[in-house]
Each structure stands twice: as C-alpha cells, then as structure tokens.
Write a structure and sequence with these properties.
It is a single chain. The protein has helices spanning 20-39, 45-65. By secondary structure, it is mostly helical. The chain is elongated.
Length: 77
C-alpha cells in the first residue's frame, strides 16, 4: 500500500507534506525489501540492510511531516 502524504488531522491543523522524492524513495525501498524477503529469508544480510535503510527514510518522512526537516534530508544514505 502506497504511503499517503495527507495528514488526516483536524481542520486548521496543517502539517507540512512529505516530499514526493522522499515518498518515491520509501516506496522503492519497500518494494525492494519485499522482493528480497521473498527471495531469501528475513534474517538475510540483504533484507536487514534494506530494512534499516527503509527505517531511515521513514524517520526522515515523519520528521518532515512534523515540519522539522526540509527536502535536504533526502540526500542522506
């Protein structure tokens, strides 16, 4: 399921949206992770590494949603 950039918060409370580049990166890594998990097992080095990278970008997206980070955090890997 794709990640939505809408916030679903109460009217009048607006949070910054997650950048399209960051959402694309998260979706790409999510698909890679699912494929790697299908091909190996959840404990494989590739799956663990992809999971950690995905976690990093999810934290960046959450931070962006809270308005604490601009698109500049996307370049960190």
């Amino acid at each position: 399921m794709p990640i939505s950039s809408s916030n679903g918060s109460a009217p009048g409370l607006r949070r910054p949206k997650v950048s399209a580049d960051l959402l694309d990166k998260i979706e790409h890594l999510r698909a890679e992770l699912m494929h790697a998990a299908d091909e190996t097992n959840f404990n494989s080095e590739a799956v663990v590494e992809l999971s950690q990278r995905l976690d990093h970008y999810i934290v960046l997206a959450q931070t962006q949603m809270l308005g604490k980070l601009s698109d500049s955090g996307l370049s960190q890997e």
